[in-house]
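Progress narrative, work stream C.
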Amino acid sequence: MAPPRPRERRGRPDRATVFGWIAGLSITAGLAALAIASDTWGHDIWSGIAPDWPGGGYGFAVTVGGLLPVTAAAAILPLTLMNWKESRARSCAWAAASLPGAAASAPLLLVIAGAWRPKSRHRGLDCYSEGGPCWVHEQYPYVWAVGLAATLVGAAVVSGAVFLYLRDNKRSATARPATRPSTSEPPDPPPPGCPSRT
């Protein structure tokens, strides 16, 4: 009979695992909060704010769709600059810098969730009440197309701006410094009658 194997001691989980769990729980909590907020305020947004917006519901969809890529970029770009190995303090600062973009994205996602029409088997009377998702699609039948087009245009503009910024930064970083003109004067010619050194 073989002797029993000693139990292996497990060490602490690595940072990537912990960060993954925190990110997963945060996303789950955010989606749950978004669903609750959509049920609470979604009807009021589309029945109260959208009709009075310049351009009505379609203008409201253009505004929300155009702002969403901007706020998403403001939330994501600082996270790409984080480097825990280089500096923890700077990484924490970049993480904090992404919070305003994430906070600005939340109401926009709430507006989108308020107009998200459920599948037909999940539609109740609440869906067709004033401000409900089905009501939104009856009042503004092409709101999804207008919002999607505005989001794509906004994403193209933001992507182009980021590309130009990165290209200019790379170009200025690789540019060689201009050579300064020499301030030293050429040596004087030897006096007449002296042999010149060659």
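Work stream C, second folded protein:
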Amino acid sequence: MSGRRMNVVDNPWAINAVCALLVTIHAVTTGLGKVPNVWKDFLDADRGLQASIYLGLLGGAAIVAGFAGVVVVFGLSATSIRFRQLRISGGKSLAANWASTSSSGLSATGLSLLASILVPTALLFIAPWLFELAILFIVHSSVRLIWLLRSIIEVVRIDDIAIMREFNKKSLAELPWHE
């Protein structure tokens, strides 16, 4: 190992891997009786209710993934010099973050769907762990998405300031409504 510490901002996939590891540890330690089963009462509840909750999360996850796609498309399609600088300087880190916001949301959608499919089967006991992981993926994706969105808003603000400075330098005769 090179002695460099991993930067979680630049490695969103590592956060997802840690989330999966935490849920796996939680599931195994619960299965071994080392920690109380927080899902027991939920698993004993009506199966229709369980499926509804899983599908409800699926809807939320789909919204997060869709919004992430909008943010990414906006960031990729903007043509100002500052956006070009952002994309160039962001490089692989920015690409990983943009891809992560969509893929984490889509992964949560798939996990929620799979959990709902498992409800009527003998594998029902797996569904809450998929649900738990989906929640962590949505939270991670949402936090990263808001962080990216704030960065994009700042670039737009700086662009707007520069445009207004140029506009304010024009004489009255140069303004578009002066004829």
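The chain has one domain: 12-162. No further action is required on this item.
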